[in-house]
Amino acid sequence: MANPFSRIVEPLDASQPEKKFFNLNHLGDPRYERLPFSIRVLLEAAVRNCDEFLVKKDDVENILNWNTMQHKVIEVPFKPARVILQDFTGVPAVVDFAAMRDAVKVLGGDPEKINPVCPADLVIDHSIQVDFNRRPDSLQKNQDLEFERNKERFEFLKWGSQAFQNMRIIPPGSGIVHQVNLEYLARVVFDQKGYYYPDSVVGTDSHTTMINGLGVLGWGVGGIEAEAVMLGQPISMVLPEVIGYKLTGNPQPLVTSTDIVLTVTKNLRQFGVVGKFVEFFGPGVTHLSIADRATIANMCPEYGATAAFFPVDEVSIQYLVQTSRDEEKIKHIRKYLQAVGMFRDFSNSSQDPSFTQIVELDLQTVVPCCSGPKRPQDKVEVSEMKKDFETCLGAKQGFKGFQIAPEHHSDRVKFVYNDKEFELAHGSVVIAAITSCTNTSNPSVMLGAGLLAKKAVEAGLTVKPYIKTSLSPGSGVVTYYLRESGVLPYLAQLGFDVVGYGCMTCIGNSGPLPESIVEAITQ
Length: 523
Prior knowledge:
This protein is of the alpha/beta class. About 35% of the residues lie in helices and about 15% in strands. It has helices spanning about 35-50, 55-65, 65-70, 85-105, 140-150, 150-165, 175-185, 225-230, 255-270, 290-300, 300-305, 315-320, 325-340, 385-395, 435-440, 445-460, 475-485, 490-495, 515-520; strands at about 10, 20, 75-80, 80-85, 120-125, 165-170, 190, 195-200, 200-205, 215-220, 235-240, 240-250, 275-280, 305-310, 355-360, 370, 380, 410-415, 420-425, 430-435, 470. Strands 6-5-4-9-10 form a five-stranded parallel sheet, with helices on both faces. It has a four-stranded mixed sheet with strand order 1-2-8-7, with helices on both faces. α1 (about 35-50) runs antiparallel to α2 (about 55-65) and α4 crosses α8 (about 225-230). The longest helix has 20 residues, at about 85-105. It is globular.
């Protein structure tokens, strides 16, 4: 059946009449301009894919009537623009497509007709681990081991990358899936089959939400859901409430994006946002770089929201320029988003849409903090860190407690490492890793680590030799700017040599500790 909304289709540029888009402003409905920007993405997908079968006019009306329907349990279909996979969860998807080809061949059909309908990208980043560290050749040796251990999987994925249309496979050593998504894979606006439409994504990793920092609506799903989307099926989702998170003020000079995200996380966990969208607005957003926004969006699973959305603005466009996106594409991205009312000016309060509820944070009030001792979402102010850890030692077993008897708080165990004697106590560091998609995507914290290393070396400080140190950048770009800024040698001097490009220690791939340390910890 023909799309009932074909009447609002028009060319974006008169000089390219073959390139069209669905102009939502021509729906002639005043409710559209009051919708949260994240809901506008859901609406556009419903309008564009409306066929009165998988997506119906009633679904479009329900989304358009979000202000009323958000309080009811109404399911709506959503067809994301693309799917992103990592190798742990992506290999089974490729296996299933291969199995479908075999089945079609057995039935006498053409197996090459079996391909993802929805564009899919698979980034190999979960296979490498820290077997070698504190040596200049750590990167090469860890990658050699990665290929040796995963030879069969990698050969299969290489076949998949050549056999399937509409599927790209990003090889090992490229970086962490979410940073590669941010720097390279994200389109922001799709230009496909003669239509412009907003980029949106579902991924088989909970931190897929990181891409919301660039204005691309996305979240993590299960493998079966991801495969269904790859086969052209919409996701059925409850029309979500949208919590507006208003940012004001300017962060203090010593505050990092990590401090801001830990503050936001604690705030939203207390507020309760499970199953909801969070959309950021307010003049404070203009003080956050795309890397800062991506860090906040990345921690979305820790505060429980489905997505944490930063609409596209001028800062987003500048990021696309910095990451060498095509100039012509950037021009069309801006023009399209402005034409459909999805380009944001955070300083202009008249653009603020309706929200279910509003939470506010003055960035000026954020102070330096850490998290732990067990979970990344448990914020601890740096000034309280020592006291908090001592309290946790004796507290009841749980997220903030180890239940160690007071008489054992000062216990120490001696051990021998490389013919020298050392000792461990409660709170001793045995693994120190600069890793994770949350941190390595942010130049301010990565360069901060490099400058700290430089100051430490100049002050004559060293890292104990038994501590397993490692640096696993989120992409080659990180290594480039660390090298160009001159801090890489200082990091290496403290033991933080580049050990690989992937999740590594962040997902538990820290590799084995020396036996003497394991025994000391057990004691």
